[in-house]
Amino acid sequence: MPAKTAMRSSLERYRAKRDFSRTDEPEGATRKGGTSDRRYLIQKHDATRLHYDFRLELDGTLKSWAVTKGPSLDPADKRLAVHVEDHPIEYGSFEGTIPEGQYGGGTVMLWDEGTWEPIGDPRTAYAKGRLTFVLHGKRLKGEWHLVRMGGRSNDKRDNWLLIKSNDEYADEKNGDRALERYSTSATSGRSMTAIAKGNKQWKSKVANTSKRLKPAKARKVVKKRPRKRPRKRPRKRPKKQQRSPSASPPRRPATRHRVLSSRSSQPWSASRRRATTGFMKSNSMVIVHFAASITAR
Ligand code: MN
């Protein structure tokens, strides 16, 4: 029974950070029994900084690590995994948006889910800071390690490393292969943008309508927004897009400058750059705009 008390309090930190009248995240309860199929999941979380929340069910809650760069398939990569507060089991079905201003405000995508299988006793391993386990996810499989870094346990940040074992699921040449290959939700198929525009969406609701939801509903919501929101929203949108890597400007003009500037030994002044790009007929507006944005940096 003392274990039960420990479970209860393990969610206190989680609850203290959130206002459940404002966020759709679950308040949560610890789960009793049923440890044979331990849940594993990763939530891609576009908060202040994009990160991947790696969660493993243990003792009725989800042990959680925020992996800044996401999991790597390359065994040589050691990805920083900041240990964060335990989350309720139901959190593993959460996909949607946490309102701005609330803790962790931003978009949450269920990037992967499945079960995990500890190698050895998971409680002892977790306490020692050396977990080895097999993932049976939709996207991540095979053996992995979570290793607590040296340092005092009372340090503010509890840093661990997420490391892929060398097995058939490893990829030494492209550790980011899984992250690059899968950009949509493992459960609803939605992109981050679609989730951000679709408001809260629970897995249980999505599961019934997933076939229809992707093409029809998601697109409809996208079109609706600008009409519905008169003035406040447009100002917010560009700010968000700056964060997404896909929003970064194309590289090609920069290459042209390099090629051009190699002809003259002089560095390019803003006015010269503008004058030169003015001669370029095709896409001249784009290039001038881009040149201006470079100058502005
Ligand atoms: Mn997070």
Describe the structure in your own words.
The chain has 297 residues and is of the alpha+beta class. It has two domains: 2-228, no CATH class; 249-296, no CATH class. The protein contains ten helices and ten strands. It has helices spanning 2-10, 12-16, 122-128, 177-181, 192-197, 203-228, 232-243, 252-263, 270-279, 284-296; strands at 38-46, 50-58, 61-67, 79-88, 94-98, 106-118, 130-137, 141-148, 158-164, 201-202. It has an eight-stranded antiparallel β-barrel with strand order 1-2-3-4-9-8-7-6. Helix 9 packs antiparallel against helix 10. It is globular. The model is unreliable at 1-7, 200-228 and 236-297 (pLDDT under 50). The protein binds manganese (II) ion. Manganese (II) ion (MN) is lined by residues 45, 47, 51, 53, 66, 104.
